[in-house]
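Hi support team,

I'm filing this because I wasn't sure whether my run with CU-O-CU linkage finished correctly. The job status page said complete, but I'd like someone to confirm that the output block is well-formed before I use it downstream. Pasting the exact inputs I used:
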Amino acid sequence: MASLPSPIAAAAAGFTTPYSSSFTTVSSWPLFSKKCSIKSPKQTHHYGVIKCNATDSENNQKPVIESLNNLDRRNVLLGLGGIAGAVNLTSVPSVGASPLVAPDISNCGINPLTGFKPGPDTPEGTDCCPPDSTQIVDFQFPKDEVFRVRPAAHLLSPSYIAKFNLAIKRMKELPADDPRNFLQQAHIHCAYCNGAYTQSSSGFPDVEIQIHNSWLFFPFHRWYLYFYERILGSLIDDPTFGLPFWNWDTPAGMTIPNYFNDSSSALFDSKRNQANLTAVVDLGYNGTPSTTSDLEKVTNNLAIMYRQVVTNATDPTLFFGGEYRAGSEPINGGGSVEQIPHTPVHRWVGDPRELNGEDLGNFYSAGRDTLFYCHHSNVDRMWSLWKTLGGKHQDITDPDFLNTSFVFYDEKKTLVRVYVKDSLRTNQLGYDYQRVDVPWLNSRPVPRTQKSGIARRSIGLVKKVSETSFPVKLNKTIRVLVTRPKSSKTQEEKENEQEVLVVQGIEYDSQQYVKFDVYVNDEDDDNTSPAQTEYAGSFAQLPHKHKGKLKSKTNFRAGLTELLEDLEADDDETILVTLIPRSGCGDVTIEGINIIYV
Ligand code: C2O
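And here is everything the job wrote out:
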């Protein structure tokens, strides 16, 4: 087994690598058309112009067209044909063509897809619009002399717990229409992900804004917490107050910090899974109680962390998630950490007695539990930590990513417009994380069998991708042989190019907790734990309530380079891929499985 690269070891020692200020060029989401963007002027959004700087196969264009279900299909097709026929495509600039623009909050809830407006008939969970504001100011970096250090939640002193409690208490006591009020703050999450905002400011009034399942996941939540933390600090007159992080990635932090269970505390929430109040968290939660012992859970959790932050996040698109530009929906897929452990932790805390798994188990209600903010503080810490790993572990440089904007109310009740590009460095935002051990950097999963030859032996018994008629249903375990476009690569090739498994066009019911696990070259998949190399990762989606739309479509990917090296299956021409449904997969369908290089 190869040893950890030195930046990782350095990070393990205290995660002190300075932030890099240079950027590499990052390739676009590989499955779809490279650098295609759809620009549509506000007034005439039916006549979108598609700009590409490379010709793509028809196969690659299809998902883009499908994503434009609200544009006139004929015009889009004509547009594509025209571009594809052009001679020098590389001269067509796509830079900054179409970042998502912050929503106009005065249009909140006026959603032409669902036709609902907030009012007495508004379905629960969709009435989450903020108070209106007559002015918006542009964000400026804080000029405070103070710096906030976000502490590990399980290590808080009694006085810090008291401070946190008091701040939340005061937030809950604010008038209901104060944008800093606890419920108003919870609504921010609901509004940005349950269809209350459309992309009308970007010229696409018929397309919703959704901040999950794409490269916007990390920056959106970072901004959300940034303002939340400052509001809390201002309510207790303590500008040094840092939002604690729920340190679920270290054994001592793997339970809900006990002060959240004190029913007299403002941090308490009655809508949590009662079976899990003092249990060891399950970062790979399947939606039902498991029989795994605590020790096994801890081992699995550490391996899952390694898997998701190291093996499955070798490249910015794998870590952050797929492209998401104006005019589209986030169909390209969420990043590794967003899927696991972020999503299972939500669901593990949410209350199964509640219809929709409230509070943390459903997007619309998640922000109503204070634990949400500590959970996301740790998710945000993963972004900082991942960037210390060196190499390709750098922020996305695509202008459409950097120029995406959002609006939030600050601690003075001023509506502030922020850009993703200003969220990349926490020290510029005036905060950082307490240094604690990162034990999972040494938790590389171990193979159950090396050189198993299982893929070769399965030929004739298991269908190849080319013999499978897609879409396939995932109502039972799927096994398929996938041919590797390039086997036997040199070490140098492997370092420059990561091999990635893609499960493509996953259509799922967005009102359910959906999870399936992916195994590679596994002879006994049902008994394989995440601590074994054969486990490649999981697809996971938190339910979200929508009035109109029930199905969503996206992709999943997992890193193969290190995994195949560890299984000593590096020179094999074929791999055996197994998908095991774990939750909500009854009517999940899949359009394809393939291997790409990024
Ligand atoms: Cu916006 Cu944890 O979800």
